[in-house]
């Protein structure tokens, strides 16, 4: 379905990024992917998975996986990623901005669960959400856009969250995700004349490594695999009328009903509303 398509997925060592890379590979794409973890056991989040293993699995599924070590808070490293893609391929068809910072409190020993409000949050968390989140998405998009504009074709997907529309997800996270949605809308406006689409994509509850490790605290009855998000991205990329969706906030489970795909286990996750998320 996506043979001869070149994609970049940021933050693909594990979780949603890994799932998206796998499904793009399963659809036949050449998938570049970034991550900081290249050796098992070296994850700062203390979770399994490496960007190298994701690339190997993409290739095993029928695509071509290329792993690139990259810290998206370092503009020089990010520039090198895009230079490599331009040198190798001369094009980029899909950019998935998945990388996101600010989650360090789940593994760095800080007393996250004792926080009672934004006034008790470490101030550095705000900076990480924006620098390694919103700004990382902006920088990658700014570097991808010229390659897409040259071909008058392309798709940028920003992985966002219902947290952008709720008041109970923490100030830093909620504001950062809302900014990501506005980033999508304003990029879509400026890219429209070049036939390049920009979309915000919301998952439901995703069975990432972190979630499955804490499964006793979650109701997983309507959850999604990381690959489910990948199937949504692949379906969007294959849609000849994708420009009609540009600038929108879309929910992966709603796209599954529209495009007719299921999760990898054959289930059909129910689309959540903002109140349910």
Briefly, what CATH class?
Alpha Beta
- Uncertain regions spanning at least 5 consecutive residues: none
CATH superfamily: NAD(P)-binding Rossmann-like Domain
In terms of structural class, how would the helical and strand content be classed? Answer: alpha/beta
Terminus-to-terminus distance: 31 Å
Q: Reading side by side through the largest sheet, how are the strands ordered?
A: 3-2-1-4-5-6-7
Order of helices and strands: EHEHEHEHEHEHHEH
Helix proportion range: 40-55%
What is the averaged pLDDT score? 92
Beta strand count: 7
Kindly provide the radius of gyration, computed on alpha-carbon positions and rounded to a whole number of angstroms. 17 Å
The proportion of strand residues reads 5-15%
Domain count: 1
Quaternary status of these chains? Answer: single chain
How many helix segments? 8
């Amino acid at each position: 379905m996506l043979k001869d398509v070149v994609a970049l997925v940021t933050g693909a060592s594990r979780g949603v990024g890994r799932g998206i890379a796998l499904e793009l590979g399963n659809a036949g794409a050449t998938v570049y992917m970034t991550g900081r973890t290249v050796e098992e056991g070296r994850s700062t989040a203390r979770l399994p998975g490496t960007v190298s293993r994701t690339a190997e699995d993409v290739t095993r599924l029928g695509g071509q996986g290329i792993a690139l070590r990259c810290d998206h808070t370092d503009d020089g490293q990010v520039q090198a990623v895009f230079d490599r893609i331009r040198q190798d391929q001369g094009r980029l068809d899909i950019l998935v901005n998945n990388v996101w910072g600010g989650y360090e409190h789940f593994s760095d020993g800080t007393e996250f669960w004792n926080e009672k409000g934004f006034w008790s949050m470490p101030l550095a968390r705000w900076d990480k959400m924006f620098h390694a989140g919103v700004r990382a998405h902006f920088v990658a998009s700014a570097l991808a856009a010229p390659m897409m504009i040259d071909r008058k074709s392309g798709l940028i997907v920003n992985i966002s969250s219902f947290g952008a529309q709720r008041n109970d997800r923490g100030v830093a996270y909620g504001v950062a995700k809302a900014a990501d949605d506005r980033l999508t809308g304003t990029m879509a406006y400026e890219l429209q004349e070049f036939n390049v689409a920009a979309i915000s994509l919301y998952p439901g509850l995703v069975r990432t490594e972190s979630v499955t490790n804490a499964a006793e605290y979650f109701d997983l009855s309507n959850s999604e695999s990381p690959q489910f998000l990948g199937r949504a991205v692949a379906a969007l990329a294959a849609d000849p009328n994708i420009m009609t969706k540009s600038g929108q906030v879309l929910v992966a489970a709603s796209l599954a009903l529209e495009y007719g795909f299921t999760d990898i286990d054959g289930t059909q996750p129910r689309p959540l509303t903002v109140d349910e998320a």
